[in-house]
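Appendix B, example 12.
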Amino acid sequence: MKKIWLLSCCIVFAFVRAHAAGLTHRTHPAGDSLLVKLNKARFRQGDTVRFVCDVPGFLRDSIVGTLHVVIEDLRTNRRWRYRYPIINGEAAGDLVVGGGIDDGNYAINFLVQERFFRVEGQVKDYKPRINPLTYVVMVKNKPGFTDNIAPEPDGSFRLKPTYYEDTAYFIFSPAKKYQNDNLWIELRTPLDSSFVPYVSATKFISVAMPGDSVAPVPTSDYHFEYSRISGPGVLPGVVVSGRSKKLVDRFNDEYSTGLFRNNVYMVFDGLESDQIARNYSVYDFLRWRVPGFTAKTNSSGGYDLRWRDRGVTIYLDEFPLLHPNDFYIDPADVAMIKVFAPPSLLGSRNGVIAIYTKKGVYEVKPNRKNKFKVAGYTGAVSVWE
């Protein structure tokens, strides 16, 4: 089995102790505290809110955890939420004040959770014969890794504690001989559930345009309620599609981004046509339809992919698939395939194949899932917007 461990963006903490993962409750020693340092208290748009937090109790007990940072507008109660890893008793971050932040007074709440990032889940209708399950973690523009798991008799499983920034794609597949079996997985991250902070602290800042000032407001009565968090306060986008467009065109408009939207590609429809779904694999479908593309089966049961004597770069929902043979993509789950001939505008001398899975209103079996996009930790430098 191949294992490519994430370096700068993903560190597997094999040494995480049980209470750091939330398996046991630990009595807090007297004097536990959270020490917070801000670079200043008054900011303008474009400035950076820089903070460093020390948790002496974590350093003393050699554990890791998570720092939740929740910013609240004292006038409107709008909230922004970020989270950072606590390692060696310390967490730090930079938040650049974006143009969408109004002049006013803000509370920055720091809450320590005795858990590190970890994915848990359960395979519904679990059958032990599908073991071992393989899971792949993909992070945009970073190395990924793959590993095997054997769920408990009830189908439940816990992955290794990991660290990555922004979001990652988790993909699960059964043992190769059972790759036609559809997996039905429920996934969760305990970091997103409610918790009682190990320790917390609040700091107050103001934001004002150059030359302006903000009148201070009384803060003695401020009380932060963690249970009231409901996301960043941004309304979901609304997509308006013309009735004359085909489903695959509407899907392309909604889910293609950046250079994947350029017009130099072939597109195959998996929404209104069953031609992709009727094949054993996506690569079997493509090798008869893309000139110069070959997909030969190898001794391990996977495919050797080539395009005009060069390699082929595979993307799944715009995440680079570093090891295409490590899991099975169900052709019935494919909404669209975009094929970019070499040399590609995506910055590769190889040909590029971008596979998009059904999602949203285009999902035929919304309850049967084996692919998940999961939010991880906030980047060390991010925009407060």
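The longest strand covers residues 104-113. The domain at 247-369 is CATH 2.170.130.10 (Ferric Hydroxamate Uptake Protein; Chain A, domain 1).
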